[in-house]
Amino acid sequence: MGNKNPIIKNISEASINRILQKLNSLSDKEKISFLKEQTPPFPRYLYKYRAISNDTSKERIKQIAIDSKFFLSSPESFNDPFDMKCKWVIEGSAFQTRERLKNLFKSLGNSRREIDEKLPRAVVTLRENPDKILGDSVKKAVNSSGVLSLSKIPHNILMWSHYSDCSKGICLQFDVIKDPDTFMKAARVRYNDTYPVINWLENNIQNPFREALLQKSTHWSYEQEHRIIEPGSANAHLSFKPESLVGIIFGVSISQESIDFITELLEERFSKGWNKPNLIKCHTHKEKYALLLYKYITSQ
Asked: Whole-prediction pTM value?
């Protein structure tokens, strides 16, 4: 069973900025050591599993390899019905409650007269049943967030099956130290058996939704997921430095047609003066249920 969740507090953006300032002052070798020294250690590499099964999936890969940008998904498209679930609590003064509700109603476009009419009853209802008041606004804010899901592992059998078209796709490898400003924003997802508990009065208007997106059921722990969350950026794009794409891993069952598609993309990428990522191939282990990664050798 998972541990009982404490009430979640704010994540400090200031601490992330301090880490980035420190990283940007170090050499690459020093950056590697610095990442290992974090608690918990931050991965040197992050991975994005992708299928190559249709025009949309091919376009997403082209955007990454050629345009150096990620598509940010809306949580509405997630495959886990429990994603974004949380338990809201209201712990604070009556004044804090009224002020937060005023700000909430303003953000939803209510006039001053409408706020004055709604506020007294809303304060009572909020304390009795937070989800009744917060449900719609929380869902709206969460679904408008753009989310990029990454993993710290490139050889998980289930990940290849679920996100790379039954091992017919690829897995892209990104070097964190080549673009810490982008990839250090990838927060580690926590896994638990119970919903995160969030005190609405102790968080700013965005952080509670971020917290709801950073915890999932223990059933998903094999993913070892990291998420970049950009408020208000659902279905938008996030740019990254081209040199941070350092590897492309072919699935066990990838077709020659898909390999040719990736090879052509890399030629176009190289023509722009960018690095050619290492090509790696997955192979099944001869004695156990495991994947082995070897440098890809072309047949030409």
From this structure: 0.86
Question: What's the token pair of residue 180?
Answer: 């810490």
Check whether 204 has a pLDDT greater than 60.
no
For residue 199, the Cα-to-chain-centroid distance in whole angstroms is 23
Spatial separation of the C-alpha atoms in residues 282 and 124, rounded to whole Å: 58
Secondary structure of 202-255 as H, E, C letters: HCCCCHHHHHHCCEEEHHHHHHCEEEEEECCCCCCEEECCHHHEEEEEECCCCC
pLDDT in tens, 255-280: 999 999 999 999 999 999 999 999 99
Give the model confidence (pLDDT) of 8-18 as tens digits: 343 456 677 78
How many helices and strands in the chain, by DSSP H and E? 10, 15
**Secondary structure of residue 174 in the 3-state scheme:** strand
List the single range of 3-17, 46-60, 118-132, 160-174 with lowest mean pLDDT.
Answer: 3-17
Looking at beta carbons, which pairs linking 99-107 to residues 24 or more positions away fall under 8 Å?
Answer: 100/200, 100/201, 101/126, 101/133, 103/205, 104/137, 104/205, 107/137, 107/205
234: which 2 tokens?
Answer: 């659902």
Euclidean distance between CA atoms 141 and 133, whole angstroms: 14
Can you tell me the distance from the alpha carbon of 225 to that of 150, in angstroms, rounded to the nearest whole number?
6
